TrEMBL record:
Residues 254-431 form the Tyr recombinase domain. GO terms for biological process: DNA integration; DNA recombination. This is Phage integrase family protein. InterPro entries: DNA_brk_join_enz, Integrase-like_cat_sf, Integrase_catalytic, Integrase_recombinase_N.
Amino acid sequence: MASVNLSIRKNPKGTAKILLNFNYGRKKRFRHSTKYTLSDAKQWDKRNRKVKISDQIPNADEINNELISLLNYAEKLASSYLSREDHLNNDIIKRDLDKFYNRNKVNTSKNTGLIDYFDWYIDYYSKHPRPKTNSVYGKGTLKTLKSSKKRIEEFQRHYGFIEFNDVNLDLHSELFKFLRDTKEYSLNYTGVVIKNLIVIMNDAYERDFHQNLDFKKSGFTVTREDVDNVYLNESEIDTIKNLNVDDVSLNINDHPEIFNKHDTPPTKDALIRVKDWFIIGCKTGLRYGDLSSLTSKNLETEYDKNTKEEYQIIKVETSKTKGLVLIPTSNDVRQVLEKNKGEFPKKISSQKFNKFIKLICKEAKIVEEFEGKPKYLSVASHTCRRSFCTNAYKSGMDTLDIMHISGHKSEKTFYKYIKASSKDRLNKIRHQKFFE
C-alpha cells in the first residue's frame, strides 16, 4: 500500500523546503513540493514532522494545520490507489495532489460576480494565510468584511448585478450616494465599505479575474473624517481606580441615560471586574478582544542583567496582527493581579463592559461636556487603548515603542489616533537632550 509523510529538503543557504513524500512501490517515490519554505532548517521538528512553534514563525499553527489537511488528503488518495498501484506514476499522483490546492479556487466562469468573489474571499482567508501578512484574518476584520459585503449586496439590489468591469468611477459615485444619502451611514463607515471593495477588486485582479484598473484611479477615494474620540488622562484613571463600587447604585432606573429597561442590572462583582479590566487596558493598550482573553499563562518573569532584578511582563499574540507583544506590568496592573491572587479578572462581554464602564465613570464624576453630552457617555472599551497611547506619548515614551505595543504600522496613523495637541508635541520635543 502507498504511504505518505512529510520531510524537508535543505539547500546551501540554510533554508528548507517542506515536502510531501508519496511512496507507492519499491523505490517508487513522488516528492511533492508544498508552498512552504522555512528560513532555517532548525525550525522543523524531525520527530513529529511539523513546524516548531516559536516566535520566529508566528503562524506555525496555521502552517501545521494546512500540512495536516494535505497529509490527510494524500492518505485518502493512497487508499484509493490500492487497486491500481501497478499503473501509478508520478504524473497521476501530481495531478491528483494538485486538486488539493485547486479545491478552494473560486468559480472562474465569465459570469462570476463581485458578490460571489466577495463570499469566496471571506471564506478562503478565514482559513488560509494572506500573502502579505502570512496570517489569516482575525474575527474583527472578518466581521467588517461581512458587513461591507452586506452593504454592497444592498446596493446591488438598487443598482443591478455588478461584475468586475462595472466597478468604475460612476459606480463609486453611485455607491457613495447610496450609502450616505439613502442609507445615511457615516462618512467613515462609507469609507470602510469602499476600502473593502478596493481590497476585493485588487485580489481578483491579481488572480486574473479581470483587467479593470479603474479602482486604482485617484478619484476612487476612500472617504474618512476625523472623529474626536474620547480618552482619559492619568488623573481621571486614578479617580476610577479609587472608586468604591459599594457607593454605586445598581438600580438601572437611576441611570436611564445608560441603560434601557431590558438591560441586565449590574452586580457589584461585575463592576469590580469592569473597573479592573479598564485599569489593565489603560496600562497595556491591548484591544478588548486580546485584553479580555488574558490569563496567568500570559504572565512571564524576565531578568535584567544590568540591574540584576526580575520583572514581570505580559506576553500576548494579538488577534488582529498575529504579532507577539511584550508589555511590562505597571504597578497598577500588579495590584489588580495581586488582588486576584495572581490571576486576571474573570472575562466579561464587551456589551456589558461598555455599559458598566459608563456607570463607573459617571460615579467617578467624569462628567465634563464632550461633544454635547457628559464625557462618561462616550467611554467604552476602545477608550482604554486610546488612553494608553495618548498618556504613554505624553509621558515621553518613544513613539515606536508605543506603536510596537499598540500595533500601529505607521506614525501618521498613530498621530491621528492619539489625542495629543501640537502643544503636547512641543513639550515632548523641548525636553529632548538636543535642545538642552
